[in-house]
Amino acid sequence: MTLLELQNLKKYFATQKAVDDISLTVERGQIFGLLGPNGAGKTTLIRMITGIFYPDEGQIIFDGKKFDPINDVGHIGYMPEERGLYKKMKIGEQAMYLAQLKGLSKADALKKIKQWFIKFEMESWWSKKVEDLSKGMSQKLQFVTTVLHEPKLIILDEPFSGLDPVNSNLIKDEIFNLAKNGATIIFSTHRMEQVEEICDHIALVNKGKKILDGTVKQVKQEFKENLYSVGIEQELSSITGVTPFEIVGQKNGLHILKINEGSTPNDVLQYLLNQRATIHSFNEILPSLNDIFIKLVEGTPAARQFQKI
Questions:
Q1: I need a surface site. Which of 57, 180, 198, 244 has the fewest CB within 10 A?
Q2: Pairing relation of β-strands 254-259 and 245-251?
Q3: What is the pLDDT of residue 281?
Q4: Does 20 have pLDDT greater than 70?
Q5: Is there a contact between 150 and 162 (Cβ–Cβ < 8 Å)?
Q6: How far apart are CA 11 and CA 64, in angstroms?
Q7: SS3 state of residue 168
Q8: How far apart are CA 161 and CA 138, in angstroms?
């Protein structure tokens, strides 16, 4: 079932089209990757979903009805890329304050905060001030305050920024647990390796427009180039005659083959067996999301952001 539907959203700032006719559907329990380079329109889109901005055109359907920022925002947890913690407040007081802003009673807020603080090994932080925390510690606190009221929709903008590998895995495991327990998650980032590991469905925006939308598997299949890696004892370059493939390179001791148009992987395997080749491995090479996105925005300033990863 659908939790969030964006219908032809548009948002302009002066002459800039920050969001230009974008439609998306996010299903319940889904981990949805909202992707794109800096300045693509992701943040503007998120701010419309959270009621911070109103769209100039189009509408948002939330939980089966037209989005009402006043009543629906309490069902959303938003962790922005630019963190919104009060630096002079003590951590425990801040968590209590933010939880009660989301409608929790003092007793419920205290109970849930203690549960999360124990889970994240934050019990000793209660009386510390935010300004005394490292970036990674602040990140853990921001995550807790985003999810502790058990929102239907959780929006995480670059949630792993500043985290070490151990705490990154801790947050990642909690994202999976939240989705498993029914929460819907929008995960916004430009780090493609994280997307491939976490997301079910992705959409790529660039210059305010949606240029890609589908499951990770569908997207990879759409952009595959019939490349295979082959582990073989023989040197393929010594093979003569007409072959159903072209040798395009080597990597990590494996031959990289591109299957000719009209041929199939079975044709390649049969050909190699007929040559009395000893085959140790034969695997399809699917493009990474990073490679796909560079290809889609190739030649634009956006491509350079992906190439830095």
A1: 180
A2: antiparallel
A3: 93
A4: yes
A5: no
A6: 23
A7: helix
A8: 10
